[in-house]
Structures are given as structure tokens and as C-alpha cells.
Amino acid sequence: MPVLHPVIASVTQAIELRSGEARAEYEARMVAARLRGPARAAMACSNLAHVFAAAEGDKPALKAPAIPNIGIVTAFNDMLSAHQPFETYPAAIKAAARKAGATAQVAGGVPAMCDGVTQGAAGMDLSLFSRDVIALSTGVALSHEAFDAAILLGVCDKIVPGLFMGASAFGHLPVIFCPAGPMPSGITNGAKAAVRQRYAEGKATREELLEAEAGSYHSPGTCTFYGTANTNQMCMEMMGLHVPGSAFVNPGTPLRAALTEAAAVRAARSTTLGNDYTPFFEVASAKAFVNAIAGLMATGGSTNHTLHLVAMARAVGLTLTWEDFEAISDVTPLLARVYPNGQADVNHWQAAGGPAFVIKELIRAGLVHTDVKTVWGDGLEIYGREPWLDGGRLAWRDPPEASLDTTVVRAFEEPFHPTGGLKLLTGNLGRGVAKTSAVKSELHVIEAPARVFASQLELDQAYRAGQLTGDFVAVVRFQGPKAIGMPELHKLTPLLANLQDRGQKVALLTDGRMSGASGKVLAAIHISPEALDGGPIGRVRDGDMIRIDAHAGGIDILVEGLMDRPPATADLANQHFGAGRELFSLFRREVGTPDTGASVLFG
Q: What CA–CA distance (Å, rounded) separates 194 from 190?
């Protein structure tokens, strides 16, 4: 077995040391909550009767004293392509549970909004806050305490982190995450991006744009680019919270059905009623989070996980910092190029070797912990193998010895880049992060005058009016969690990309998010403190020289006396109402900072 890289070891040790008291308290609560028999055995008869009143054929089993009951928490809705397949999962899980001598019930549902639908619209202001709502909803679903294990059905951006955060309160239970898989490939990502840029320039009609978008997002399943949703799935593999190899198997296939059934069987066998008790809190360890960060860096995954993994860790008593991300990024080579970091989609990646190939390479390089507990047992090695059907039986085999397409995934000796896809930025403008894996190296540094905007709409209007000439850094502020909920500003990507393609040097600096679809323009995001919280970004003026250096990790304004200036103000009233935003004033008031996860619950 390869020797663990010293930086991976030291980062893990640092996390464990700084988290000592909080983690010990969390583990003590989970140990105290461990069930000594079926959960419903402690219920009064009236309470128990409510549990199985509608259970039809499962009533006798639910009355029995030693039959495990699995709680299903689902993010199903049939507007999200990624979650539409979950409609049939509860019935399949119940059937598999019965075969395993258990029962299963839908404990509850959680909201699942689509960032693709809300990009550039009012609803996007609720996107990040929906993660905490999902956590609360998960807690409500499992609060009936009628369950001995849980299966969580979710895929997309805030759903998986929210499910994780909610499950943390029930860490004494075995918990398995069960995805639905990506839709089959449609038009190429390059073709889609080209139409978007042409539309932004007025060179493509709305009908052409819609046809391209519909050709890309065309059937049940997750969007096929490597954004936050698919990065979630990679992280769940790295943390050992999936049935191994579940991430990128397409919906509606026999292998997908077999993986779902396996989740039910494994959940049934992992409770305190059997001999293989595997509680969630033991899987969600510091080593598991370090593995997730290594997987994030090796694949150029979503910048949103600099928020999500931090908040998820806090939910289980662990403190991650952005310095941990950078330290791991500095020693982890970039092994995959998947759109927006390349032209391939996740189906192409899966065919070329998939997450299993990357995990195998990270193990070989000593960049991940193998001595971890997973939902499938001890050790990460099984996640470096791929599932297949052997005569109709679910089995695992080694991934390809060598990459089947070195333009998509590579061995660690010949990476796309010697370091990962993320850089911590610090300077007199605060702290932020930049995703560099999709940006050409020669564009990692920019020194240019600021063009200041209080919204992405203002920037869009300036673009359409032809006012964005010359080199500049677009400063889009009052986008932070306290201001309006920290929306993604992905709608700006085609505009800035067009200007860059014309030969202008451009970059984005914002206290908002850019998303898992961060593209080829340098973007310094998640700037903290945010403008509304007194951050220096709130004192920048048009024409101020700004330097963003993603090589050295700096974000600086090249003027004297910045903090002597009065802070800018913005009228945000119109962004606090409509599309449900008026319901979230408490969230805006209580949310934590981006570097602590931007969470209301664990900020």
C-alpha cells in the first residue's frame, strides 16, 4: 500500500486537532443515541399504530420486535430531470428491503430547486438557503424516530449537502445516499457554449438558443456537465457514502436498478439489529472529508464545495478551512478534464474510466486515506473498482488499467496539471477562492481598472449598451449571503467570455457565487467579508486598479486609504421580495460567512 502523502496526513491531523472538543461532543451524543433494539420498540402503542396504519402488507413486520425499518427521505419532483427518476425508487427500495428481512417507509420529502431554472432569476436568491431548509426538512422527516437506518434520495446542487447536514442529527443511524445518475449525452458541451455566446452577442436567435439548450437537457437524469450536482456524487464516492460506483450510472438501466436495490439491502444489514452496525457518524470522519477534498481537486469540481464541505463538516463537529482546501490542492494533480474544464461530459468520463479510475490513482499516489469506514465496510479500495452485472448479479471489477481516453482522464504520473483546480485568494480586498482548472494559465493574473456593479443585471445592461471596453475587473458586489442570499452569477459567463475572446483582459470579483459551471474567465468569488458586512469590496470605485493573482493567491486593490472611504450602499429592497424571498429575512440576518460555510444552522 502506498505511503500516505505527508501533506494529506498533516491536514487531517490539523482538522482533528482544531475540531477536538466539538467532534468529541458530537460523537458522544451519537453513541448515547445508539439504538439498543428496533427504534419503534420504545414507542407507546398509540404512536406505533400511527407508524404502520397505512403500511398494508408490511404491518405484521412493523409490529415485530426485531425487524429493521428503513426511512426514505426523498427529493423527488418531476420538474427536475435529475430527481424525476426517484418517483419509482421507494417501491423498489421497499421490495428489496422485504427480501432482506426488513421494511422501508417514505419518512418525508425535501424541497429540490433547480439552479438551472433559476439562473439569473429571482428564485436564485433562495438557492443557497434551500440547503438549510433541506437539512431542516430531513430532520423533520427522521424525527419520528421510527427508523433503524436511512436512505437519502438526492442529487443536485444544495440537495445532497442539505440531506447530509440534516442526517448529521441522526448520526447514530446507518445512512446511505442513493443517486439517480446522469441523463445520456445530448449535443456537445462545446456546441452548447458556442450558441450561448453567440446569443449573448445577438448573433443567434432565441429559437436557436432554446433548441441548443433542449438538445443538451433532454431527458430524465442529472445534467451531464461536471457542475455541483455531479461533484456531489464524486464527493459521496470519496466519502464512502454511496454503494460503490453509483455516481454516474444512467437512469432506467438494469445496473442502476441493481445499485438501488443494493442500497436497501445494505441499509437493512447495517443496523444495530445485525452484526455489521455502520453508523453515519463513523463514516463522516475527518479522513472522509480530506478524501472528498482530494477528489474535488483531482477532478476540478465545483467551487460550491468550498461552502458545502465546510458546512457539512461543521454539522458533524469538524472545522474545515479554506487553507485545508489549498494545501490539498497544492499536492493533488488534476487528473480529469470534464466540462467546463474540458469538452467531455460525465458519461464520456465514466466510459474512459470514471470516478473509480481517479480513486484508484489517488490511492496509488498516497493522496487519500484508505483506512476509513464506509457504508460498504472498511477501506476505500472498493470505491476504486467499478460495478457491473455478472450474469444479472451485481459485482465489482477493476477499472481500466490505463485511461481509455487521455483527453478526459489520466494517471497521476501524467496529469493535466500538477496541482488541483482551486486557489485560495487573500489580500487587502479580503478572502475568496478561484477555480483555475478551466482558465488558461496565462490568464491567471490580471491587473486592470475596476468596473463596479451592484447586480449582474447592471453588468448585463452595460454589456448590451457596448460600454464594457478595454481591460477591466468586473466588481459585482452586494451579492453575499447577508445581502441577497449569495446567488450564482453564471449568467455572466457568456458575456465576459465574449469580451475575453475579443482580446480584452477581463475578470470577475464578487461576493456572490459563480457555480460548478465556472468557465474560462478568471473569477475571484465568495469574497469575504461581503460588501453588506463591511468588507473592503464595498469601498471599491470605478477606475481603481485591482490585481488578481491566482498564481500567488492574491486579491488586492492598488490604492491608498481604501478603508478611509465611506462604504457604498445599495437599495436591496426589491431583492428581498417576490419569488418567496420575503420568507427568508431570518436567514439573511443569521447566515454565517462564506469561509464558515455560509450556513444558517452551522455558521
A: 6
Average pLDDT, the chain: 94
Q: Is 171 part of a structural domain of the chain?
A: yes
pTM exceeding 0.85 = yes
Q: Which domain holds residue 466?
A: 422-573
Start-to-end Cα distance in the chain: 38
Number of domain units in the chain:
2
Residue 295 is assigned to a structural domain of this protein: yes
Phi–psi pair at 130, nearest 5 degrees: -65, -25
Answer yes or no: is 282 within a domain: yes
Q: CA-to-CA distance for 264 and 2, rounded, in angstroms?
A: 34
Say whether both 354 and 484 belong to one domain: no
Select from 394, 400, 368, 395 the least CA-distant residue to 381. Answer: 368
Q: Is residue 337 part of a domain?
A: yes
For residue 334, list its beta bridge partners: 417
Question: Based on the number of CB atoms within 10 Å of its own CB, is 385 exposed (0-12), middle (13-18) or buried (19 or more)?
Answer: middle
CA 300 to CA 318: how far, in whole Å?
A: 24
Both 434 and 382 in one domain: the answer is no
Q: Are residues 297 and 345 in the same domain?
A: yes
For residue 385, give the nearest of 404, 369, 398, 374 by alpha carbon: 398
CATH number of the domain residue 490 falls in: 3.50.30.80
Cβ atoms of residues 73 and 163 within 8 Å: yes
Residues 300 and 265 in one domain: yes
**Rounded CA gap, 129 and 325, in Å?**
23
Q: Where are the beta strands (DSSP E) in 110-244?
A: 149-153, 175-178
Q: Are 426 and 553 in contact (CB under 8 A)?
A: yes
- The lowest-confidence range among 27-41, 132-146, 389-403, 450-464 is 27-41
Which tens digit of pLDDT belongs to each residue from 196-219? 778 777 788 878 776 877 677 778
Residues 74, 79, 80: CA angle, nearest 5 degrees: 60
**How many CA atoms does the CB half-sphere of 153 hold within 13 Å?**
33
> Residue 516: pLDDT above 60?
no
